[in-house]
Specification:
binds adenosine-5'-triphosphate; 10 strands; alpha/beta; 38% helix; Rossmann fold; binds magnesium ion; 4-stranded antiparallel beta sheet
Length: 252
């Protein structure tokens, strides 16, 4: 069942079309991926789906409801989690606290609780969620380490953890393997499969074609803002149009 859909998405910058009439669908419990060369429109499409960017045409449908007019925060509260192409974590906070921020961001603490100095009973739920995510990402030993001391690979995991702590229904990741070692990419692949197995719909935008072909259930190939091809990883990899536009030129 589709949890997130982009229908006929078009986005222009000035007179220039960055994404043109692209339709994609992310199923609950599955991994979908968007590939394409530099400038193909991947990040623009991603921003249209998350609400960071408005659309010039088309619609975004989350869980059957049209969310096109909602901003990024409102979509996040509905269960749309994301990470950024450039890692964005709080460097002076510990790994565990970064995750806690993700857990707290999705619940609204009523003002009166703060005024009366009462703790929110849901905070305990947040703590156990953080523990589960630390274990899933194999970050338990780094829980008290300040994020700024970590490698790019670990930082990407922390950012992913923060998004997971928000208990997203769909998780969007922009180039999660960028800056990761082969071993870290291997770990990421396992994590993405585990997240999907938990029922979350995953959409990744990715340059690392091997990761995509390995982990995705469904692949969308973009070139110059248009959808060139979509299907299973094997179908897309074998599509001559895709090979011409991207795969033959991708680093091996
Ligand atoms: N804010 C912006 N203003 C003007 N043009 C933009 C803006 N963002 C993207 N573009 C243009 O839109 C096109 C698509 O860019 P986009 O960043 O979506 O590509 P991408 O597939 O994510 O590329 P990369 O692989 O380099 O991350 C490019 O031609 C880019 O120059
Ligand atoms: Mg991009």
């Amino acid at each position: 069942m589709s949890v997130l859909e982009g229908r006929g998405i078009t986005k222009r910058f000035g007179g220039r079309v960055a994404v043109e009439d692209v339709s994609i669908s992310v199923d609950a419990g599955a991994v979908a991926a968007v590939i394409g060369p530099n400038g193909a429109g991947k990040t623009t499409l991603f921003s249209c789906l998350t609400g960071a960017s408005s659309l010039d045409a088309g619609a975004v449908v989350f869980d059957g409801a049209d969310v096109t007019s909602l901003g990024a925060d409102a979509r996040a509260r509905l269960g749309l989690g994301r990470t950024f192409q450039r890692v964005s974590v709080f460097g002076s906070m510990t790994v565990a606290d970064n995750l806690l921020v993700g857990a707290e961001a999705t619940r609204r603490t009523p003002l009166w609780r703060g005024l009366l100095g009462r703790t929110d009973p849901r905070a305990a739920g947040d703590a156990s969620r953080v523990e589960r995510v630390l274990a899933l990402l194999d970050l338990e030993e780094l829980r008290d380490v300040e994020a700024r001391t970590l490698s790019t690979g670990r930082l990407r995991l922390v950012e992913l953890g923060r998004a997971l702590c928000g208990e997203p229904r769909v998780l969007l990741l922009d180039e999660p393997a960028s800056g990761l070692s082969d071993a870290e990419t291997e770990g990421l692949r396992a994590v993405l499969r585990a997240v999907a197995a938990d029922g979350v719909g995953v959409l990744l935008v990715e340059h690392d074609v091997r990761l995509v072909l390995d982990v995705a259930d469904h692949v969308y190939a973009l070139a110059q803002g248009r959808l060139l091809s979509s299907g299973t990883p094997d179908e897309v990899a074998a599509d001559p149009a895709v090979r011409r536009a991207y795969l033959d030129r991708a680093p091996s």
